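User: We ran a pulldown and think these components assemble together. Before we commit to crystallization trials, I'd like a predicted model of the whole complex to look at. Sequences follow.
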Amino acid sequence: MASATSADTFPNMSSLGEAHVDNERRLPAKPVNPVMETRDLNVFYGDFHAVHDVNLSYGRHEITAMIGPSGCGKSTVLRCLNRMNDLVPGARVDGEVLYHGQDIYEKRVDPIAVRTQIGMVFQKPNPFPKSIYDNIAYGPRVTGMKVDNMDDLVEEALNGAALWDEVKDKLKQSAYGLSGGQQQRLCIARTIATKPDVILMDEPCSALDPIATARVEDLMLTLRNEYTIIVVTHNMQQAARVSDRTAFFTARPDETTGNRTGLLVEYDLTSTIFSAPGDKRTEDYISGRFG
Amino acid sequence: MSIAATTARQVTLATGKSKDKTPVSLAFLIALWFSMFFGVLVLLALIVNTAIDGSTRFDSELLTNYASIVRPESSGFRAGILGSLWLMVFTALLAVPLGISAALYLEEFADPTTRWNRFVEVNLQNLAAVPAIVYGLLAVAIMALLGFQNAGIVLGGALALALLILPVIIITTREAVRAVPREIRQGSLALGATVWQTTWRQTLPSAIPGIATGTILGLSRAIGEAAPLVVVGLAGSVLFDPEGVMSRITALPMQIYSLTSNSREELQQAASAAIIVLLVMVLGLNALAIFIRNKFQRSW
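Assistant: Here's a predicted model for the assembly, 591 residues in total across the polymer chains.
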């Protein structure tokens, strides 16, 4: 694996074309030994066919971005990866979601165990109505993780999310006193405190201002060294700035019902997707002609 | 076109009497004011009238003495006040755990699409509309099943009142639980917490101010009820303090009820004074509920 140091610098926010940080990572065309894979993934909400036949693989210590217009099923796919879709009444998943080769939808797999390995950061910062310290300590406490010193773990997690210096003097204060960007980094810190393998991010910056966004993107590039990150984003520039690989989804209306079913159009290295996409729909979307 | 439109436009704003102040709209406004005053006036008249009637009896004996027909001028409501307080405590002990558990099940665990749960849902709404006296009958029946000859004891009264306020507690608790944002639950579950842990450590603590408010409002309704207690067979007067759940008691509304049917002047005055005491207790509980709501209310 190529060194990631050059990518750890402040991400270029100015334009799409110059931001191919992953060019220097020299990744193989296809992920080798992927951490996660979806095989013929189909998702239904009741009778509604939300996602059709998605085949994707997510590489270790890579950032994979899933982009596409609204309703293309990218968030649905993301929520399948740690079984958060189980919580939606009427949701049904067909096909396989492999984590280190094991299907997480197999009957004997406990969704709770899946979620301790595959953490998730949500669109809107959602800190708990507790102190900053308790927000971080919550995950390790509920999962019964063996912790020698909780104070050290909290510091480590906050450091990992580049938040420690800002909050070290007010750990006992409510997390609601933090700014939106700090709250989102707290949520990332909360997720890494349980030491997951994969971190899913569902449009993590869509509620943040550009400066807070830049800090979270910066953080994602740092976290890549230790975690595998899968991010859904509306923001193509963000995908271009931070991701190693990009999957482009689109929605196809059903001929009879008119319901829009999401499907995967193209999946490749981000540099390829943004410079030489293989599908016309991808090119149209990226160049802003549609979506 | 736009330039021509902006330069050519000549506007004179109408002056003089506002169209909001025509005789018709003023008459309508007066009608609205009258309606509002009617509601307030009824309450004021009630309180003032009762307070004047009972004003001769605002003394400490009112609170410390037992009821007496022999010396009506110093008759007191010690037994009723203590009885009502005991009823409050045991009503809360019975209704709060049951109500919160039922509400949590319905909100966090039940699948709302099944026919059984929809049936429960509809019946809960109906339960809240059942007349209070019916709960008294139900409490008598339950006490008989439990083998009690006499239902006019703390347990019987508390049972009737608990049944009465159970729907109120369930409904307000459900609203409080529903007000906790879904994102909080999802955040907890995404960290690997179970639904149980999420309910206990996130949802319930966040909902407690709302639950407390609803519970207190339910209790303040229960404290003023006489009908179910009459059916249960609570005494109109007792001459001793309650000593346990098996103790025969009376309650403040029961004492008021039995005194107002007596024609002696002094007892009428005592009843009026007791009504003021009861109103103070109810308004105090409502004030506490409002205080809790304002103090701990969270905006998400």
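The radius of gyration of chain B is 27 Å. That may be worth checking against your pulldown data before setting up trials.

User: Thanks, that helps.
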